[in-house]
């Protein structure tokens, strides 16, 4: 079943509900729409599955009911620069669940949508379990991401003003040259993420752990560390380092912590279905009581 749902900002998003009837529901806001032809080939060069959303949904739908949508794609297409706060996003997610008649659910999010999962968890009692990928749930890099996001937005504004264009990409290279990269994103899109991180300036994830009384998993790729140069604020966003540093403490708080191993297992590779599904599917089966 698919349905168009009108969100808080009056934009509409396509939402799907599929899978095993009567089973527990998993919310997947990371379900990007499939792309094909040349666009798909370009994504493959960067190690990105062009059918990422489809493969996640199909990979889990034989065991669970899946509530899926592409929230990142939605906010890129319908930017809301002044209002994309955690409260706003959580209201969108709970409204989607209500519209699809889903009472309780588990959640999987990656990167900033993992961050949102933590915000969802402390604002509702409807979660049955939580999986966060590519963003640590304890001592998260909020300040570093605020700096990178602010610098990105400033460059997007400058690019729009100057009319600059992104240089041609070398199709054989999988390394991002952050210092020579031209930011060509719509400034309204980048501004909404500045709004989100600004609203989290006083958030302390160390003080909310007692509220997370359900099964929970955090993971990151072995190489999920990005060192940004001067152009992006001279900061290091070390997702895997923070997760490793606090793994013992997190275990004591009831978190399962996993590192996806591999020399190429960076932030992008560690979000692909081929890497993630072998970890999260058996975890959900085990913790949602489906294991025989």
Automatic annotation (TrEMBL):
Keywords: Hydrolase
GO MF: hydrolase activity
InterPro entries documented for this protein: AB_hydrolase_fold
Domain of life, source organism: Bacteria
Protein name (record): Alpha/beta hydrolase
Species this protein is from: Paenibacillus contaminans
């Amino acid at each position: 079943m698919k349905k168009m749902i009108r969100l808080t900002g009056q934009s509409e998003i396509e939402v799907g509900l599929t899978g095993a009837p009567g089973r527990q529901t998993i919310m997947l806001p990371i379900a990007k729409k499939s792309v094909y032809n040349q666009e798909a080939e370009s994504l493959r060069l960067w190690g990105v599955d062009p059918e990422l959303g489809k493969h996640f949904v199909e990979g889990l739908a034989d065991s669970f009911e899946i509530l899926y949508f592409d929230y990142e794609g939605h906010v890129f297409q319908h930017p809301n620069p002044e209002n994309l706060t955690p409260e706003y996003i959580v209201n969108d997610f709970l409204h989607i669940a209500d519209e699809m008649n889903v009472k309780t659910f588990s959640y999987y999010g990656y990167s900033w949508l993992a961050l949102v999962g933590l915000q969802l968890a402390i604002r509702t009692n409807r979660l049955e379990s939580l999986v966060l990928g590519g963003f640590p749930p304890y001592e998260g890099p909020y300040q570093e991401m605020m700096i990178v996001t602010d610098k990105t937005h400033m460059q997007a504004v400058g690019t729009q003003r100057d009319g600059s264009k992104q240089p041609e990409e070398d199709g054989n290279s999988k390394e991002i040259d952050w210092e020579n990269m031209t930011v060509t994103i719509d400034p309204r899109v980048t501004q909404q993420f500045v709004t989100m991180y600004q609203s989290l300036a006083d958030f302390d994830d160390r003080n909310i752990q007692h509220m997370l009384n359900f099964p929970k998993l955090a993971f990151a790729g072995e190489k999920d560390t990005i060192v940004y140069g001067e152009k992006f604020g001279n900061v290091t966003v070390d997702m895997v380092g923070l997760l490793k540093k606090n793994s013992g403490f997190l275990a004591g708080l009831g978190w399962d912590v996993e590192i996806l191993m591999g020399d190429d297992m960076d932030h992008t590779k560690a979000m692909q279905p081929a890497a993630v599904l072998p970890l999260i599917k058996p975890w959900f089966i085990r913790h949602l009581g489906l294991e025989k």
